[in-house]
Amino acid sequence: MYLGSFDGTNKKIFFQELWRHELEAAQAQSPIVIVPAGSIEQHGPHCPPDVDISIPYHLAIATAQEIDDFPVFVAPPVSYGFTHYNMGHPGTITLGLETFIALLCDICRSLKANGFERIVLVNGHGGNVAPQRSAAVKLAEEDVWALPLVYWQLVEDELHAWSETDEGSIGHGGEWETSLQLYLRPHLIDKTKILPPGADYGWPREGGRFSSKLARFAEWPERRREAPYGVVGDPRVATAEKGERLFNVIRDRLIEVCRELHTQEIRRYRQFGSSSA
Ligand SMILES: [Zn+2]
Question: Which of 37, 133, 261, 275 has the most CB atoms in a 10 Å sphere around its CB?
């Protein structure tokens, strides 16, 4: 994972590396803070456990590096997520549901309280989708606005159009996550552990044990990592080129999101009914 810091030549994008005067100067320019969130969990025999945080973290970094006309900072990543259904597999570390939501809320409350009001949460883990949205809704109660993005939901059309085997799903250590890793961190993918052609990954394409009608509702509340080898999807068709192509489109979408958010007024509670109509 890229953990480069300021060496005097590159742009400072990591929130925790900025000096006080830089933070203060940025606050006058409607800055964006991206908070990547992911998970530490098993990802099959060929991937490391930090796939789901590495992808949104790299996306956040690439986005911040591309935007020069206003400040975009990357907050320290929330590496741990909500992944109870991967327990029992080595490599998995989960937070409790309430802990994860509270962690996101505390980070966003702090950013807002100290002058950073345009917050983009970028999630890379399926189990975090509903909790991240819940955190954003909870924050809205307190007049804190954090946009709860899920990176693969920015490119659903492309995922459907470009999938060879995984039918538009981001999967789990399958076609797309493995491709993204082969692009971002090829040294961490053990290709010798990917199953040979003809072997069965047993991807439960129709919702596993449930009918598709029931799976739509049951999937996440019930979910267990029952797929053989802990993989959902087919990493045999993964390539770095596919990963690069997808990564660049997601980054461009994230740039568009930041640009739009940058121009938005921050709305605050105000009294209704006091003005004369
Ligand atoms: Zn994953």
Answer: 37
User: Taking residues 23-40, what's their average pLDDT?
Assistant: 97
Cα separation, 223 vs 220, whole angstroms: 5
Question: Distance, CA 231 to ligand 1 centroid (Å)?
Answer: 9
Cα of 48 from ligand 1 centre, angstroms: 10
What distance in angstroms lies between residue 238's CA and the mean position of ligand 1's atoms?
Answer: 14
Instruction: For residues 140 and 149, give the distance between their C-alpha atoms in angstroms, rounded to a whole number.
Output: 15
Reported as a single tens digit per residue, the pLDDT across 76-123 is 999 999 999 888 888 999 999 999 999 999 999 999 999 999 999 999
Full-prediction pTM beyond 0.85? yes
The pLDDT of residue 272: 62
Report yes or no: 49 and 92 within 8 Å, Cβ to Cβ: yes
Q: Which residues surround ligand 1, an ion (CB under 5 A)?
A: 51-52, 172, 177
Distance CA 152, CA 249 (A): 10
Distance 264 CA to ligand 1 centre (A): 32
